[in-house]
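Side project, low priority. Logging it here so it doesn't get lost.
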Amino acid sequence: MNRAVVFDACVLYPAPLRDFLMWLGLSGRFRPYWTTRIHEEWKRSLLRNRPDLTSDRLDRTSELMDRAIPDALVTGYESVIADLSLPDADDRHVLAAAIHCSASVIVTFNVKDFPPEVLAPYGIAAQHPDDFVSELFDLDRAAVIEAAHRQRQQLGKPQVEVERFLEILRKQGMAKTSKLLSGHRESL
C-alpha cells in the first residue's frame, strides 16, 4: 500500500498526533502530503491557543517535517481551489491539494466537512485519523507498532510508560488505535 494521503491541519495541530502520523509516514506504507497553507493553519491555531510556544519553534517543526519527508509539500494546487465546493469554503485548499497529488484519503477530524458525494468523483475519501490508523494496523500491524514504539522512545527521559502513552493517544481521539496497540504493550 503506497497510497497518497493528505493530512488536514487539524490532525497536525496536536503534537502527539502529528508526531505519530509522521512516524507512520516514515514507515513507507503511504505517502503523506500537506501544503504550506496547511502548515500555516495548524501553526496559527497553536500560537493562538499556546502562548508558551513561539512562531520560530513551530516554523522549525514544519521545516523538520518537510525535510523528513521531502516530497510531502504539495505545490501548484491553487488553481483548482476556485472550482471546488465544500460546506466550509476554507477547506477547499485541502481538497485541491489532495486532487493535485492524486491522494486517495484526506485524514481529518472534520470528516463532515468533506462530504463523500463531493470527494467521490475525485477518488478521495475523508477519514478520521483513528479510522485511518486502524485500517493501516489491519494492513501492516508491524509498521504501526514500530511507529508507536519510535514515538514513545522520543517522548522523553525518563521514558513515558506504555499506559501513559496509550492514554495520550486516547486523548488525541485515537481510542481504537490505543486499544489495538494495547495488545502489543511489550513491543511499544
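Brief comment: The radius of gyration is 16 Å.
Revisit when time allows.
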